[in-house]
């Protein structure tokens, strides 16, 4: 067994995602169960540097499992990129006696944690908290399931109005680098086309397909676009479609930040609880500087330096399914 951890700091960092509160709760309650002291670090690495660190008790996390957002707040912190910033953070943690950290965030936050853990003697554990699902070493990220369900609910509503007016809707969902929200929500709502950053968008093919559908009098068409698609977002796509299909009644809907909010789904609460529990055990049993993930329904531990944005391959079969089912 490695050095015994006695005081754990928990924080949320980078982009927020629904289910982060469930993860915080799991870390706090598991730590207390094992007789450890738990501290909440406010606003990501900013709170570490500014010494905004508060003791947490079992009651501090009462009634939060069902709440979106994060009670610890989150932030992006420029100072942490600098050695001096990280030194300040270390001095504050050392003064309190924090000897282990759980960072709930995305790959950027893990990069920060990895650098910090290499520089100083405070082990860090990462929990994947991002709606984008673009992290290696895990089938799930905390927040993706909720975000994609929010998108599905919104797109279903758009389909109703699209149907009433025979309109073509171009719907933009979140995903700057990853198309998972677009792909999952698009398939689940019966979108005709899904445009994602992982695949070069062939606009000619899209236009031809829409023209062909127009000829066949397929009146309701929905195109789901990830915000980071290489051709551009929904407005760019709509502009070209309007030029090439002047008769189509085209509308744009940008779903935006609603995808980040809301009460976390059952799945997100469940994985957040399992991961939070596992993070404390990692610190206790010396499995340091890893990201906790779940692969094939088993806990899986990836060294922090490898838990960076995964350019996971989008399955060709999934894209084939989109084409076949939307015909
Ligand atoms: P996310 O964790 O959602 O990917 P960011 O990429 O914005 O979000 O990262 C969150 C924070 O992590 C940054 O604001 C910064 O404080 C810290 N961080 C990210 N990359 C590094 C790095 N290379 N060195 C030090 N800190 C970093």
Overview of this protein structure:
- The protein is of the alpha/beta class.
- The chain folds into 2 domains: 7-143 and 264-307, Rossmann fold (3-Layer(aba) Sandwich); 146-260, 3-Layer(aba) Sandwich (Rossmann fold).
- It has 10 helices and 11 strands.
- It has helices at residues 20-33, 45-49, 83-96, 107-119, 144-165, 180-189, 203-215, 234-244, 266-284, 316-325, and strands at residues 7-12, 37-41, 53-56, 100-105, 124-128, 168-173, 193-195, 221-226, 250-254, 290-295, 298-303.
- A 7-stranded mixed beta sheet has the order 3-2-1-4-5-10-11, sandwiched between helices. A 4-stranded parallel beta sheet has the order 7-8-6-9, with helices on both faces.
- Helix 1 (20-33) runs parallel beside helix 9.
- The longest helix is centred in the middle third of the chain and has 22 residues, at 144-165.
- It is elongated, with a radius of gyration of 22 Å.
- The protein starts with 6 loop residues before the first strand and ends with a helix.
- Bound molecules: adenosine-5'-diphosphate (ADP).
């Amino acid at each position: 067994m490695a050095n015994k951890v006695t005081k754990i700091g928990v924080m949320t960092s980078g982009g927020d995602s629904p289910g982060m509160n469930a993860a915080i709760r799991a870390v706090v309650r598991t730590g207390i169960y094992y007789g450890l002291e738990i501290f909440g670090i406010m606003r990501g690495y900013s709170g570490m540097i500014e010494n905004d660190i508060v003791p947490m008790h079992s009651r501090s996390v009462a009634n939060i499992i069902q709440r979106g957002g994060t009670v610890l707040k989150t932030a992006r912190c420029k100072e942490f990129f600098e050695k001096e910033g990280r030194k300040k953070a270390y001095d504050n943690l050392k003064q309190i006696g924090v000897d282990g950290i759980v960072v709930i965030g995305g790959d950027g936050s893990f990069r920060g944690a990895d650098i910090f853990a290499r520089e100083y003697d405070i082990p860090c554990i990462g929990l994947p908290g991002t709606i984008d699902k673009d992290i290696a070493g895990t089938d799930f990220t905390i927040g993706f399931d909720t975000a994609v369900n929010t998108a599905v609910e919104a797109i279903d509503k758009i389909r109703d109005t699209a149907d009433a007016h025979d309109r073509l809707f171009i719907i933009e969902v979140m995903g700057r680098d990853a198309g998972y929200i677009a792909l999952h929500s698009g398939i689940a709502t019966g979108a005709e086309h899904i445009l994602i950053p992982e695949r070069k968008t062939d606009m000619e093919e899209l236009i031809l397909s829409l023209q062909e559908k127009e000829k066949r009098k397929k009146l309701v068409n929905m195109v789901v676009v990830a915000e980071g698609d290489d051709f551009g977002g929904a407005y760019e796509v709509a502009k070209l479609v309007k030029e090439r299909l002047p008769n189509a009644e085209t509308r744009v809907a940008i779903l935006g930040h609603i995808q980040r909010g809301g009460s976390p789904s059952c799945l997100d609460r469940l994985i957040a609880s399992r991961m939070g529990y596992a993070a404390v055990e990692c610190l206790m049993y010396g499995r340091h500087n890893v990201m906790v993930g779940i692969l094939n329904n088993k806990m899986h531990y990836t060294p922090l330096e490898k838990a960076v944005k995964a350019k996971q391959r989008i399955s060709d079969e999934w894209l084939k399914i989109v084409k076949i089912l939307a015909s």
